[in-house]
What does this fold into?
Amino acid sequence: DTEVTQTPKHLVMGMTNKKSLKCEQHMGHRAMYWYKQKAKKPPELMFVYSYEKLSINESVPSRFSPECPNSSLLNLHLHALQPEDSALYLCASSQNPATSGGTYNEQFFGPGTRLTVL
Amino acid sequence: KNEVEQSPQNLTAQEGEFITINCSYSVGISALHWLQQHPGGGIVSLFMLSSGKKKHGRLIATINIQEKHSSLHITASHPRDSAVYICAVRASGTYKYIFGTGTRLKVLA
It folds into this structure.
């Protein structure tokens, strides 16, 4: 299984709603990532989880709350979002986020969740 | 100036044409990743390179580490190849990808 799955595919929510995005991988990867992608722009990194612990938060507003319940699953909890948060949210995973010389870790991306905030 | 530059930004080709997309970068890297994204869709990994050349079907990717340049070639292009092609580099000593702005390819039947 070399797939990263994301649910839901599409989500429409109001600014007062609370919703969650889900990402799952069964490749035994120990690093998982959340990206936000606006139209015609490259993805922007939001969070990195390494061995189920949050290792990087790219100064993301607190209305986005990530959670990694186990090594296969990554959630993104959404609360009090703004219309400008409407975007494609991509999840990715890699074997590990090691930065030691000579190794590289290919990131495998999911299909994304298209989020619209009204 | 972006650390990862792609050219061209937009490309329209006729079915069957040979296509080249270029990526230049200004940082030291541990690897370079070519990705494909269809409109409104998720990202598919095409190649990850740290040296030389890789081939998969009609796609060929090359990298020249000394010149800090990579190319993605598509032979016998087909309308289903229409997508955005993104070059992303993994800078040395970091977990982060630095993404290029993408090349929008449209292949006409």
